[in-house]
Amino acid sequence: MAPARTSLCGRMSGLAAIQGSKPESDMTYATADDLILALPRGEQELIELTDSTGSGSVDDDKVARALAHADTLIDSYLRNRYPTPVSPVPDVLRDLAC
Predict the structure, then answer these.
(1) What's the CA gap between 60 and 12, in Å, rounded?
(2) Looking at residue 25, what is its pLDDT?
(3) Residues 28-49: pLDDT tens digits?
(4) Which residues does 16 contact at the CB level (< 8 Å), separation at least 6?
(5) Higher pLDDT residue, 56 or 22?
(6) What is the pLDDT of residue 27?
(7) Count of CA atoms in the C-beta half-sphere (13 A) of 81
(8) Which has the closest alpha carbon to 98: 7, 9, 4, 1?
(9) Burial label, 23 (beta-carbon count in 10 A; 0-12, 13-18, 19+)
(10) What is the C-alpha R_g of the chain?
């Protein structure tokens, strides 16, 4: 679970660059690399946020679930006004997903 933070981009619950060559159903607003770039302490902070087993590495499943949650949340706000998923992804959506 994400710790409370003041920066939206630093929250685990909202992780974001488009995978342009992927089919729309696999498109995400952010990637793990985007998340690492958005976090103040980068990969080390992502490890601390996701590593519940003490392995010293990023838990890719937790990151994927957080990114998927962010995508769903963003789309839920946009779908009544715009076709979703939004492509190409504006920087503001990538930032919000982080």
Answers:
(1) 13
(2) 52
(3) 999 999 999 999 999 999 999 9
(4) 28, 29, 30, 31, 34, 35, 38, 67, 70, 89, 93, 94, 95, 96, 97, 98
(5) 56
(6) 79
(7) 4
(8) 9
(9) exposed
(10) 13
